[in-house]
C-alpha cells in the first residue's frame, strides 16, 4: 500500500502518475496474491482526516477518477459516498476480475468513467473519498488452519454472530509463511472499533501470534494493543504528516 499526501488540486495528478506506472509494471493476469483485487492499482481512495475536509476530498476524487480513465484507459468505478447509494468496495470486487468483466458485459455494472471493459492486463480501478480505515491483519498460532481463520472472520465481521461494526474480515492462507492462517480485516470506523478490539474478538477463538498494519492508521486506532503481540509496519498518519 502506498500513501500520498497533498492539497486540493495536487492529488489527482499524482494518482494519475501512479496509475500509469502500475499499468506499465503490473500484469494482473500473472498475479498470484490471495487478497481480493480487480486491478493493478485496484483502489485509489482520497482520504480526509476531518469532516471539514470531506467536500474537498470528494471533489478531488471525482477529478482523479476522470483523469485516471483519460490517462490510462482504465475503467473506473466509484464506491462509498461518491455513488449516492453507498456501493461498497467489496460489492464491486466480489468474484475478482473475471466476475467483474462478466457483470460489465451483462449490463449489471457500468464503469463511472473510462471504457466499458476491463484493461487486458491492469483490470479496473476503484475510487472513493472516505475517512481513514485501518487495514489490520492477525496471524494465528498453529495448529490453527485457514478454515479456523475463515470461521473466525465470519463471526467477527459486521453482520456475523459477534459482529464488530464496520469491520470487514476474511480468513486467508499465507503460503509464503508456511501455510499460516491469517484473519485479514479492514476496520472502516476506527473511532468505534480499534485494532485491540479485533485482537480481543479473535482471541476468543484462537491465539494471535503476530499482527501487521498495511498502510497508515490513526494513532488512536492502535491504542490498547497487547504489549506482547508483535506488530509489523507500525506507521501512523500523524507520524507521516509530522515527518
Give the helices and strands, then pairings.
Layout: H1 11-25, E1 42-47, H2 54-72, E2 76-78, H3 89-93, H4 96-105, E3 125-130, E4 134-140, H5 146-156, E5 167-174, E6 180-187, H6 195-203, E7 208-214, E8 231-232, H7 237-242
Parallel strand pairs: 1-3, 2-3, 7-8
Antiparallel strand pairs: 4-6, 4-7, 5-6
List keywords for this structure.
3-stranded parallel beta sheet; 5-stranded mixed beta sheet; Alpha-Beta Plaits; Formiminotransferase-cyclodeaminase, Chain B, domain 1; 243 residues; 2 domains; alpha/beta
**Mind telling me which CATH architecture of the largest domain this is?**
2-Layer Sandwich
H/E series? HEHEHHEEHEEHEEH
**Total of DSSP H or I helical runs spanning 4+ residues:** 7
Percent helix among the residues?
25-40%
Q: Structural class of the secondary structure composition?
A: alpha/beta
Q: Can you tell me the CATH superfamily of the largest domain?
A: Formiminotransferase, N-terminal subdomain
Strand proportion: 15-25%
Task: Report the principal-axis shape.
Answer: globular
Q: Can you describe what's shown?
A:
This protein has 243 residues and is of the alpha/beta class. The protein folds into two domains: 11-130, Formiminotransferase-cyclodeaminase, Chain B, domain 1, CATH 3.30.990.10; 134-242, Alpha-Beta Plaits, CATH 3.30.70.670. Helices cover 31% and strands 19% of the residues. The chain has helices at residues 11-25, 54-72, 89-93, 96-105, 146-156, 195-203, 237-242, and strands spanning 42-47, 76-78, 125-130, 134-140, 167-174, 180-187, 208-214, 231-232. The longest helix is centred in the first third of the chain and has 19 residues, at 54-72. The radius of gyration is 18 Å and the shape is globular. The two termini are 18 Å apart.
Amino acid at each position: 500500500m502506498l500513501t500520498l499526501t497533498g492539497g486540493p488540486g495536487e492529488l489527482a495528478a499524482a494518482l494519475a502518475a501512479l496509475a500509469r506506472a502500475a499499468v506499465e509494471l503490473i500484469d494482473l493476469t500473472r498475479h498470484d496474491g490471495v487478497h481480493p483485487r480487480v486491478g493493478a492499482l485496484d483502489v485509489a481512495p482520497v482520504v480526509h482526516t476531518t469532516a471539514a475536509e470531506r467536500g474537498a476530498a470528494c471533489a478531488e476524487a471525482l477529478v482523479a477518477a476522470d483523469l485516471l480513465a483519460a490517462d490510462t484507459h482504465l475503467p473506473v468505478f466509484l464506491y462509498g459516498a461518491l455513488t449516492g447509494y453507498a456501493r461498497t468496495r467489496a460489492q464491486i470486487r466480489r468474484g475478482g476480475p473475471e466476475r467483474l468483466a462478466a457483470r460489465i458485459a451483462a449490463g449489471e455494472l457500468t464503469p463511472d468513467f473510462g471504457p466499458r471493459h476491463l484493461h487486458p492486463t491492469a483490470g479496473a480501478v476503484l475510487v472513493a473519498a472516505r475517512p481513514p480505515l485501518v487495514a489490520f491483519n492477525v496471524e494465528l498460532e498453529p495448529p490453527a488452519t485457514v478454515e479456523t481463520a475463515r470461521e473466525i472472520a465470519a463471526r467477527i465481521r459486521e453482520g456475523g454472530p459477534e459482529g464488530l461494526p464496520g469491520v470487514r474480515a476474511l480468513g486467508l492462507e499465507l503460503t509464503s509463511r508456511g501455510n499460516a492462517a491469517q484473519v485479514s480485516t479492514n476496520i472502516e470506523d476506527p473511532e468505534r472499533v480499534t485494532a485491540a478490539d479485533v485482537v480481543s474478538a479473535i482471541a476468543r477463538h484462537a491465539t494471535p501470534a503476530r499482527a501487521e498494519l498495511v498502510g497508515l492508521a490513526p494513532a488512536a486506532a492502535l491504542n490498547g494493543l497487547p504489549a506482547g503481540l508483535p506488530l509489523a509496519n507500525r506507521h501512523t498518519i500523524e507520524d507521516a504528516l509530522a515527518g
